Fold:
Amino acid sequence: MIGLRVNHFKASVLALVCGLSSPYVMAGMIDKEGMAAWEICAMCHSLNGISRMAKFPKLAGQKPAYIIKQFRDFNAGRRTNDGGQMEAITTEVDIDAIEAIANYFAQLPPPPAAKLESDSESSQLFNDGEEIFYQGVGRTQACANCHAQSDSLEKQQIAANAPWLFGQHKNYLVKQLKDFKSANRANDVTVSMHQIARNLSPQAIDAVTFFLAHKQPGKGSE
Structure:
């Protein structure tokens, strides 16, 4: 009974932390005794890597290199978000454990896509987003050049740190594109995402994120 009560208390604290926005409240408040490093991340991203809230990205099946880079960027202040939550959480995790954390989430099955309704409006939005992703729009290159699997060694090298996007929360993707567009997210060392996002209209952002959220991912593919 005592063990159950302790676990319930920890779960309550973790749920509370995920809803907080102040790093001053979060830092140092987590009881980490007996927890694996990835369990600290799982309090917001879930143990199966499929977060319930769109403010937290799904990490299941994600590239280890991408997870490692984002963790290090938050820890070093190169990336900020949501009032400092992630920056504070990275201080709760041993930096030497980041590879184990990344590998844990990477080996999980990728998240299932959101169910696509059969109405014509949803189908059109999906098709528009698919075209943008694979072919680009206007002056904007195709997202697939970096975010889809390729047989080209050159493209594989370019996309080494680009995340898999299929099955991700739509609202999370919208926010990231808006943050790149406004330069609120500044940890893209190539600055390519800033230019791409600036060239996307609100309608294009809506379409491509809708497509990505409803596109069934295959681990290590597309």
User: Anything to note?
Assistant: Residues 120-214 form a domain with the Cytochrome Bc1 Complex; Chain D, domain 2 fold (CATH 1.10.760.10). The radius of gyration is 18 Å.
